Amino acid sequence: MSRRKSFESSGCVQIEGEEDGYDALTGLPDRTSLERRIEQRLAQKGRPFSLIAVDIDNFRSYNDAYGYAVGDAIIARFGRYLQASLSSGAEMVGRVGSEEYLAVVDGADRDVLDSLTSDLLTVRLTIDGEGPSVESTSVSLTAGAGVVSWDGEAALTPAALIHQAEVALRKAKQLGRSRRYAFETDDAEFARLREDMRLSMELSVEIGDALERGEFEAFFQPLFRPSNGRIVGAEALARWRHPSRGLVSPAVFIPPLERSGAIVDLDLAIFEQCCRFLRDRLDKGAVIVPLNCNFSRLHFLDDSFADALKGIVDRYAVPPSYLCAEITESAFVEDFDTVIGQVKRLHEHGFSVAMDDFGSGYSSLGMLQNLPIDEVKIDQLFFQRDLSDFRNATVVYSMANIAKVLGLVVVCEGIETAEQVEFVKGIGCDIAQGFFFSRPVDEASFGKLLERARAHEPLTRSPLRKEDARSFIVRLFDHAFVRQDLDAFADCCFDDVQWQDRFEEGCFSGIDAVRAHLERAMSGRELSIAYKAITVNELSGDLVAVSGEAVFTGDVDYQGVFYFGASCLATDAGVLLTKMKIDRVNRSGHSHRSLQMAAMDMERLDEGPALDQFYGVVPVGIIRYDLSGDMLITYMNQAMFDILGYTKEQFYGEVGANLRMIVHPDDLDYLYKKSVEMIETGESEPFSYRFIRRDGSVARVLYRQCNLPGIDGRPVTQGMYIDLDEAERYLTEDEGE
């Protein structure tokens, strides 16, 4: 089938009498054909229509990653996708640039246009059958869309209307990935955007000299805690104070800086201004708060980036913990391994890292658990939607909730109304940013804001990140058991540390006693440790309980599986151990069969924040535990703590998170076998067994089991518990009455 016939069969209208004017690569109409069609429509007064300009985001990266043959195949395949997606409303879809397309759409209804473009912004394409040099592959891509509508009356040329659509497209691209931007032909916003573009071209030749003269300065947009309206940080934003034009908008100077690569110099200049600002306030004894600084993805491709920031921080002698590097979500998606390596180096130097514009690109919520970041900034586009709509609200809630479960600080961007403030409070957002609270202000004005808010809370950037807590335990055991470096071990502990060791059947109090115990017990042993699970349970802002299961190997007398429960505290000197309990495992002879751990180093998510909203107020006990992790508890509700006679702090501090340690020893094997049987048969029937309470008494419970996926996708067992002794007391009282 010819390109013309293929196009006509798609349902789109073809220009009468035209035989040529098709793009060779895609088979779509070219710019000339589109201009002719637009000219025909402009002659039909009283019939509004719209143009949709679409451009693939960062297309060069696909050429770099897959080669030009696949790049061409993507262009052709995306063109066909557009043609099919827009067939219900488009009169013509054509290609007007390398990876730019244009559609002529009948009508100017904004809802219809939004619906048409919604499926164009995030796309997954299968490239297959595109030629002998192109292997079958699947790619994910995002695109920007610019929309302009003609009212049926204004006097315009096709070139002018296309130009307006392309201006809208550029605006969408400036906003980030997967964005659309629309305006009417008589919209004053278009005139402003066009003026920005013209001014950007004029000023682009001055930017290099302006950087050298120090004309760029940091403005600060405060970050607020929505629960009390207190300032807890700020984002540093670049502004150009031009000697004759005054303050120049970032929309004018950022694009040419990005095109030239000079954006890296601007980023470092703003970062240095932040360090200078912090140093000045420290010298004056004034209030300081953490500052977020934006960095282009180009920095993360430079191996010296983290060291460069450390050098600036050292020069001004400011704590790196008060500086956070922001990088956009798209940078993580495009250069994942490279960026992750840089993030780890930034952490080594004491900086925190935030993912900016989260949700705007083609990443997933599951991606978060693989990112060593400290905070996520949910993109403002989510708060511009109708948050009274269940689906819109659920999307934002899910993003915030999963981020919090992973121990990340959640920042909500673009908050402009009181209704949005109430919404972010309701979803438990840690920090809010937007015009409702404050526009970006200069350094002097920001200093005054801090002085007026001296009662601020310091920003808690997840003081003890879950990843930090896990790595601390690994480091602690490495010092104590593997390398037996007791000086390094002592540096990880409080002087009054408590150590209970059931391998050696001893309890030791104070670092000197613990050192002596380890020196006596470990001397001459060659051990290694394999970790089967490490679970982190946050008790307060700086106190966490860490528990898990691991295996000693390498020494015949000492090897075996053990459980541990530790209490750790984040201090200015780093994470320190306050209490450790180690318990040897006796397996009662049964095997794990199909439930045996398939891999070591399994990490668990703390499910508490996500599940408390459902189970926090029910009158029965709930425990979730993981049989594949040998009964490691992933969640327990308040009613269950009450049944066992523990507070949450007591339970995780004294017991850890292992179900075996609270089940009556005579019932343990029975419980395990019954649980496995119900998993294998898919049947569930209630049965009773016993727990040991904190005070040593026995609690009889009625147990009903169900099996379901945990919040991280792994299978977990959930048990519902009724305290039989308590139930019998109620029944006895009722009978007495």
Automatic annotation (TrEMBL):
For this chain, one GO molecular function annotation is:
cyclic-guanylate-specific phosphodiesterase activity
Q: Which CDD domains match?
A: EAL, GGDEF, PAS
Question: The organism sits in which domain of life?
Answer: Bacteria
Q: Name one Pfam family in it.
A: SnoaL_2
> Which parts of the sequence belong to the PAS domain?
622-682
Q: Describe the location of the GGDEF domain by residue ranges.
A: 47-185
Record domain EAL: where: 200-454
Return the InterPro entries for the record.
Cyclic-di-GMP_PDE-like, EAL_dom, EAL_sf, GGDEF_dom, NTF2-like_dom_sf, Nucleotide_cyclase, PAS, PAS-like_dom_sf
* Name listed for the protein in its UniProt record: GGDEF-domain containing protein
UniProt source species: Eggerthella lenta
